[in-house]
Please model this.
Amino acid sequence: MNAVADWFRTLYETTGINLTIFYDAYDFQRYAAGIGMTLFLSVASIVASVVIGAAGAAAQGSGSALVRQSVQAFVVVFRNTPPLVQIFFFYFGVGAVIPGIETSYGTREPLLGNVAWAVISLSLFAGAFNVEIFRSGIEAVPRTTLEAAEALGYTRLGAYRHIVLPLAVRVCLPALNNNLINLLKTTTLAYAIAVPETLYAAKQIWSESQNVLEMMLLLLATYMVLVGVFAGLMHQWERQMRIPGYHR
Amino acid sequence: MSGDSVVAPKLAAPIVQLIDVRKTFGAVPVLNGISFDVAKGEVVCIIGPSGSGKSTLIRCINALLPVTSGTIRVADIEVGDPRLDKLALRRKVGMVFQQYNLFPHRTALQNVMMAPLHVLKQDRIEVEARARALLAKVQLAGKEDTYPGELSGGQQQRVAIARSLAMRPEVMLFDEVTAALDPETVKEVLVTIHELADEGMTCLLVTHEMGFAREVADHIYFTDKGVIVEHGPPQEFFTAARDERTRRFLSQVL
Model:
């Protein structure tokens, strides 16, 4: 570890390329914490947005017109507005209206902090797209396949569980992957409400060390690796789910 | 023997009974009063021009479509009853479709096992043994772990027949099951159905295979524009059709 630090310090002294995070323990710790926060935002909002998408797509098949229209309204609102505006809306708009909690020191603190608001708004944003993605998957299952299940005595719920969902997931995996990759990258918007994620940490480091270009390149490399690993995992899953002889 | 309200001669203990069945889609009448009985073990073929309501009729029998009026009874179950126990009905009635409609994400063996496991909650070991026996019966031993997309049309259709038989139905409905097949695979499916008929399974077939109908059917119904125009045992039906529409249809297809 010391050899690495020495090498980067020498690199700086001889060429002027200043990658502080490799020889400065404090910067390293800040940047690592930033990546940790990015991973937390990503995993939390991916899980929540998939749940929102599945629930929304199921609700769109509901018999109640009110339920269907509510889901549609949700999709339109969150798909047709910029995610940064949504984050500001929740953090500065909604966050200011809902009551805070009294701390033991007698001061008031907001009920939800910036990290919580970031997860909520990112989840709703990506969830709106997931509703449409899941719905297209369910609609791609032929009506006749469902009819065959019905003729075999399956209930509607049983047919959904054993036949429609397994097929729908396969159909919508490529679109879902794209949306979730976009979501991972969109977590950088949490920077705007001071969530200490990777971009925020990089900004702090470069304003102290004046190494903007180096940190920018490092930032790009970091996201290339993060998205690369995530996309690799998703593609592996896609391959495992592939059905022999079944082309779409 | 022709007209809008033809009633087949009463046979002992009909397992399927239709009385003046009518069905409209919106304002379009599709079935205009169909009545007939099918006795246990009987093989009945329904033939007729496209759009004559054959597939609609067969879908009404296992409640995939509701009838507009009239009565359908299957083994003492009133199909039109609003409190119909659909599972009880579908345990008694198996159905095979024109497009096979296998579940593409499951192997041939799993396709046959799924409904007994998920719907009837039967024991997995017994279900698997029976599924293997059924696949062997339809000449598909060795194809257990193959996915539907890797099978020929004729093979898929035989898996679909085995899948239906796994529910131990008392009546089998076949909806133009060879219409989507290549000519060379039609025969293997017909052989399977023939064997079923020989074993005493009650079969109701909508078909365009006149040669097969003649060979296997106990009774043939000719429908046009939602009514039974003419019916009778195959020998009589194919050689001595009385109605002009029947004669015209037969001259086109034979």
In short: Chain A has a mean pLDDT of 92. The interface with chain B takes residues 142, 144-145, 147-155, 158, 162-163, 166-167, 170, 243-247 of chain A (CB under 8 Å). The first helix of chain A runs from residue 2 to 15. Chain A is about 75% helix and 0% strand.
